[in-house]
Amino acid sequence: MIEIEDVSKRYGDKLAVEGLNLTVKKGEFFALIGPNGAGKTTTVKMLVGLLRPSSGRIRICGLDISRDHVLAKARLSYVPDQPYLYEKLSGREFLEFVGSVYRMEGSKCQKEIEKWVELFELRPYVDELCESYSQGMKQRLVLSAALLHEPEVLVVDEPMVGLDPKTTRIVKEVLREKTRSGVTVFMCTHVLSVAEELAERVGIIQNGRLTVLGTLQEIRGLAHSDKGLEDIFLKLTGAGDGRP
Q1: How many structural domains compose the chain?
Q2: How far apart (Å, rounded) are the C-alpha atoms in residues 99 and 142?
Q3: What pLDDT does 109 receive?
Q4: Less packed terminus of the chain by CB within 10 Å, N or C?
Q5: Both 63 and 24 in a single domain?
Q6: 116 lies in the same domain as 186
Q7: How many Å apart are CA 195 and CA 191, to the nearest integer?
């Protein structure tokens, strides 16, 4: 599970995230949405240990991500909004490297590699250098790497970027299955239809503060609207209907 307690992040005079409190329970699918510059990326980077909070505490499965960072990071996986690969490694070599980082036993690692290569249809490309991959292929490889060691917490930032409709459907089903098996999924996205379709709860962050939190039904009640998440988001964030 994820526990965020009174977390703030300051860059000089700019307060990027302020007083964030949030608990995402085991097996829950949570989506964080918000306008550009609202603090989503900063929140995600603090959550996975890439940034230290200026104040407050973040725990992953009961472990403080700042104090017990190695143990905490062993329990989670992170899919960034842009896939970062070692270009001179093949896809298989990259997956084997990730498995070694997580100290996976050799036969177990190979079994998991085969599983995800098959599911994400990477077999024709897995022994080619990553530098030759398209955006969609890179994203599929990064998703495979994130799932390789069977994390308890999965943090995904725009997971559908660059994916074709078939792979997008596969990823959605994988994420659903993971939550059904008890994995906590924290997703950050601008694609509100994906958040509406998958998330059990949604949080809206604005100007560094979590201003709205709840199920879609609860958020509809707050907005006094029975429309979709996109319309509700525009209404609650003061963006109107988006027309000039």
Answers
A1: 2
A2: 12
A3: 96
A4: C
A5: yes
A6: no
A7: 7
Q: Does residue 173 have a pLDDT over 80?
A: yes
* Domain encompassing residue 223: 1-75+152-244
Phi, psi of 89 (to 5 degrees): -100, 150
Give pLDDT, residue 243.
43
Residue 217 to residue 184: CA distance in whole angstroms: 21
Residues 167 and 62 in one domain: yes
187 Cβ contact list (under 8 Å, min separation 6): 29, 30, 31, 32, 155, 156, 157, 159, 175, 194, 195, 198, 199
Q: Which of 131, 150, 169 is the last residue of a domain?
A: 150
Residues 151, 170: Cα–Cα separation, whole Å: 18
Q: Among residues 126, 150, 174, which one ends one of the domains?
A: 150
State both tokens at 146. 């994130």
Counting beta carbons within 10 angstroms of the beta carbon of residue 90, is it exposed (0 to 12), middle (13 to 18) or buried (19 or more)?
middle
Are 88 and 168 contained in the same domain? no
Give the residue carrying structure tokens 């000089």: 12
Block residue for tokens 């977390």: 7
Greater model confidence, 29 or 37: 29
List Cβ<8 Å contacts ≥24 apart for 193-197.
193/228, 193/229, 193/230, 194/31, 194/160, 195/31, 195/33, 195/229, 196/228, 196/229, 196/230, 197/172
Q: Do both 141 and 170 map to the same domain?
A: no
Alpha carbons 206 and 47: distance in angstroms, whole number: 18
How far apart CA 93 and CA 116 sit, in angstroms, is 14
Q: What is the pLDDT of residues 184-204, one digit of tens each?
A: 999 999 889 999 999 999 999
CATH number at residue 196: 3.40.50.300
